[in-house]
Structure formats: C-alpha cells, structure tokens
Amino acid sequence: MNRRGILVILLLALTLFPGRVLADEWQQLFNGKDLTGWKHVGPGDMTVEDGLIRTHGGMGLLYWTGGKVGNCVIRVVYRMRDKNDNSGVFIRIPVEPREEWMPVHYGYEVQIDNEPEKSAEDEYHVTGTLYSLTKPLAKPGKPGPEWNTMEITLDGPHTVVVLNGVKVTDYTEGQPVPARKFDFEPQRGPRPSEGWFGLQNHSDNDIVFFKEVAMKPLNK
How far apart are CA 173 and CA 218, in angstroms? Predict the structure, then answer.
C-alpha cells in the first residue's frame, strides 16, 4: 500500500473511531524540557538535566498536578545512576499531596530498588512490588546505568506492574498482606480506585533519572 492509501485509512479511522484511536495513544506527561505540570513536596528536589528528570536528596515527591487517575496504564522509563539506587512511583494517593509521608501511608509505592537492605522483608521491598505489601513474581530490574521500562495498570481495584516486559505484581484490593513491622512502612488498608501519582526522590545517595512518564486510558 502506498503512502496516500495509508493516510486515507488513518483519516477514516480518526473520523469513524475517534475515541478508540485516542485511547491507544500515550499522553506524555513530561515534556523533556522542564517540570511544567508537576509539583514537588518534601525535602530534596528534582530538576531536568539533558532532557531527563533527576532526583536530588529527599525523601520527597514530585507529583503530577493533572488530578486523580484511574483505569489507565502509567509508563515510566528510568535508570539508576549507580549499580543500584532507590526511588519509587507512588499511585492511588487519595488527596493532593502536601507533604511526603501522607502518600507513603495512604497510597502505594511501586518500589524502585533492586537490592534492598538485607532483612527479613527483602522480598517485599524489591523493584516492582507494592512496597512492603507484595512479593515479586519475578525480579527483572536492570542495574544502572541500563534503562528500565515500568508499566503500572490501574484497573478499578486491580493493580498490575510489568517491568521490562515481565509481570512483577498482580494485586487486588482486599487480598492478604503481611503485618506492618517498621514505622517507615505504609499503613495497611484499602486504597482508592482513582488517585494522584508521583515520583520519589529518596536520598542524597540515591540518584535516579527518568526520561519518560506517560499515561493512556484502558480500552474497556
């Protein structure tokens, strides 16, 4: 088929099925230039360097100011500066963040940390898990400076995390979780179907770069 024929088909698709076409497109939430549409709370900071979001200090949170999201897929492409660094993607935050600890206790953190400190909770603190709540189905996280692609599906009460094409988490609200053992772990309890989301900057020793943050609605 020549280029003219392809163009005609695309124009017909946009005319006849506008909603379906748009639903298949990723909405880029980071423009690659600055943090327009984002706001930071808590210690530390995030900046844009060479087209990448870079973490500084912490513990803080850079959240998307576009409002609550649900029934969607969030895609985050990131890399660690060193062999291993700590960060996370917070989801299902019930109210707009004003400080760094409310998202920890009342949202979920999708962990970024391939080598958590050695403890009995290791399995619950590895990349792609809901921090301290779920065990990983696999551990496909790549060390720095390799790029990782994380896709988080929010489907009503169902949360699925796929890292580098491999499913790590498949959790539905109400499923059993381990008891809370440390004060820095989140409070247990249900999370909303729709919520705010953001990126964590963890500490001076943990530098993570993000080159893409995108979202698309579920085709339902």
Answer: 19
Cα separation, 31 vs 52, in Å, equals 10
* Cα 133 to Cα 109: distance, rounded to the nearest angstrom: 10
Q: Which domains does the chain have, with CATH numbers?
A: 28-217 (2.60.120.560)
Q: Is 69 helix (H, G, I), strand (E, B) or coil?
A: strand
Whether 56 and 46 have beta carbons less than 8 Å apart is answered as yes
> What does the pLDDT read at residue 118?
55
pTM of the model: 0.87
User: In sequence order, which residues have a C-beta less than 8 Å from that of residue 11 and are 6 or more positions away?
Assistant: none
Regions in the chain scoring below 50 on pLDDT: 1-21
Identify the pLDDT of residue 181.
Answer: 87
